[in-house]
């Protein structure tokens, strides 16, 4: 959906061909989510099928072969996309969340090792993003500003992921501690052990 809406937004600026659409999408997002020509072509064909995009009748001045432009419905879709917030009620599948959810429910998986390996990777990514951020000019152009905002998103996501991994590690440790205490209470003979006789007090002896 993000690629589809992104291409609609780009075509709202001017007609473009498949190659130019890919180039603009990559440039605006800093190449963070690179598209291949086949993906762009397939998405454009679906937009044509849905009546949002149509081929430009004559050759486009930029020289790009087979340029496309938005239909009236396409412009309405672009305007609607800018106005509505991104739907977070139905989260996309997160491989790391799925991986750890399966890990904590699998008896043969070393969850601590999984968390440690991911923390190392997340910290490496965070360092790389921070390094790229430091290379940006103090007075960014519009293209640099777009790339800067994408980098900010990646930095915040990496920082949040590291904090979440800390939370996962602590939660697993608490669960193991509680399970150990419960197992100790339920161990055979734990509740059947007769009480240790208390030494008689001086009053009892009298």
TrEMBL record:
Residues 8-78 form the Transcription regulator PadR N-terminal domain. Keywords: DNA-binding. Residues 180-193 have a biased composition (Low complexity). Residues 179-206 are annotated as: Disordered. InterPro entries: Tscrpt_reg_PadR_C (IPR018309), Tscrpt_reg_PadR_N (IPR005149), WH-like_DNA-bd_sf (IPR036388), WH_DNA-bd_sf (IPR036390). Residues 92-171 form the Transcription regulator PadR C-terminal domain. The keyword Transport does not apply. GO terms for molecular function: DNA binding. Gene3D superfamilies: 6.10.140.190, Winged helix-like DNA-binding domain superfamily/Winged helix DNA-binding domain. This is DNA-binding PadR family transcriptional regulator.
